[in-house]
Amino acid sequence: MGLLDGVLGRPAPRRSPADRLFALVEGAAALEAATGLAPTGAGAVCHRLVEGGAFGAFGRARREVARLLTHDGPATETVEDPHGHAWLRMERPPDGLDRLAADLHTVGAVLTEAGFGAYLLFAAVGFRRGDGQRLLLVHLYGRGTFYPFAPRGDGARSGRNNTVEERARGALAAELPIEPDPGRRFAVWDAPDLTVRRV
Amino acid sequence: MASSAPPRPPDAAPPHKARPPYEPDPVLARRMLLTMFLVLLVYAATALPFFLLGAVWGLAAVAAAVVLAAAVCRYTDRLALWAAEGREVTADREPELHAIVERLCVSADLPKPRVAVSDLAAPNAFAAGSGPGAAVVCVTRGLRERLTPEELAGVLGHEMAHIANRDVLVASVAAFPSMCAELFLRFWLGLARRLATLPIAVLLAPVALAVLPLHLVGLVTSLALSRYRELCADTTGTLLTGRPGALAAALAKIHTGMADAAPADRRALRPVNALCVARAAPDRRRPPELLCSHPSLERRTARLTLVSQRLADGG
């Protein structure tokens, strides 16, 4: 949003760059080599729930996403929160991260094609280590950047493990564009658990 | 706002982005430019007498105005928070508010503003600060008690739109000449009341006479600008959240809530009235539109319905 847009009060939401989710494949390999955190094969997309009901344009786009995703692999799962956000969770084989990246990309592509690209917030992929350390690699659609989010311990909202996040950023820097502004590496406590396989 | 594309047969493939997703609203932009032009005229009218005294005086007056305006912008957030009895809260204390604001920052691509709550029972919210880098959003306890989470997100979306549009800066700049004129008029009235200073007041009477219309015109133009900015923030905010229905519901609740609010609460919100999501006074004592800082509920709801229709047609 430029200065002129602001001064004129124009409704000019950001224009999303194309997502870079396919870079996840190399990023995950680098992360595992450096820190031992291995992908679980679970991933999710967080988007806003645009109003309009099941028969509005957004409802149609969501049905199209569901149709494209369920033709292969296990069914997806949706978690909605009362503030108007939803997480679309999916699981693919842990060794086939390219399939997960492709399916996450499909969600964004369908919603963008329908005109709702501005309502995509995050995509996230889960990682886990033998000692129980969890990590989510989060993609910010609006900025085209990635950042690691490593919760400490098992409890909800128990704080972030800065050491693990810092090491992960170092390992990923060569493969992925890392979010440069620390103030925008937001915690995603409400994400569904991507670090444990359910199927 | 309505799509101008001709109706297409239901079996045809959807068009590939026939229009840019968010074209500006030309009517509103034109009116806003006109109002800003009027604001400029008010500025020129303020500076003119000083330039008539001499170029040095004129430049000095302009410099003083710039310094004052900068100070107002710099401290507007602290002033507003202090006036509305707001205090900043951390993410540990208010995880819900922080989570909503963070998601809105992702949508609007803004740095995260500070988050504050006020213990007032009147339901309202405001954003303050000169720009996206130094902003604060504040909600009252009454607002959180009355609104559903979804409606709260809608109101915060409106406030984030104010921050994105730099509305506090625009509003302070627009209101500045009339504020200065008001200060001078009060000073003059103070002089006129005392016998000892009455001669000075008589000497200054022509200046006061000149300042009075300036004050009135400045007030009316800055209020008009404020009404447009509110409508813009409604549209921008709901295009961020994607849920104009939630903001419309929240506005209706806030309007009834403010009418029932205690007079002391309303008084506390009055200094930040221009920044609030809804007017800090009951609707039954609503002055004519020309003297209102906010558009009427009907007008705002009608505009939100347009956003709803557009979202139902496809972003």
List the helices and strands and how they pair.
The complex is a heterodimer of chains A (199) and B (315).
Chain A: H1 3-8, H2 24-35, E1 38-48, H3 57-70, E2 77-80, E3 85-91, H4 97-113, E4 120-128, E5 134-140, E6 145-149, H5 162-172
Antiparallel strand pairs in A: 1-3, 1-4, 2-3, 4-5, 5-6
Helix pairs in contact in A: 2-5, 3-4
Chain B: H1 26-53, H2 55-83, E1 86-88, H3 95-108, E2 114-118, E3 125-128, E4 136-140, H4 141-146, H5 149-164, H6 167-193, H7 198-241, H8 244-260, H9 263-269, H10 297-313
Parallel strand pairs in B: 2-4
Antiparallel strand pairs in B: 1-2, 3-4
Beta content of chain B comes to 5-15%
- The proportion of residues in beta strands of chain A is 15-25%
Mean pLDDT of chain A: 86
Total strand count of chain A, please?
A: 6
Query: Helix and strand string of chain B, N-terminal first?
Result: HHEHEEEHHHHHHH
**How many distinct folded domains of chain B?**
1
Instruction: Please tally the β strands of chain B and state the result.
Output: 4
**Shape estimate of chain B:** globular
- The portion of residues assigned to helices of chain A is 25-40%
Number of domains of chain A: 1
Mean pLDDT of chain B: 80
Largest Cβ-defined interface: A-B, 45 and 54 residues
Output the number of helix runs of chain A. Answer: 5
Q: Which overall shape of chain A is indicated by the principal axes computed on the Cα atoms?
A: globular
Structural class of chain B: mainly alpha
Low-confidence stretches of chain B: 1-23
Radius of gyration of chain A: 17 Å
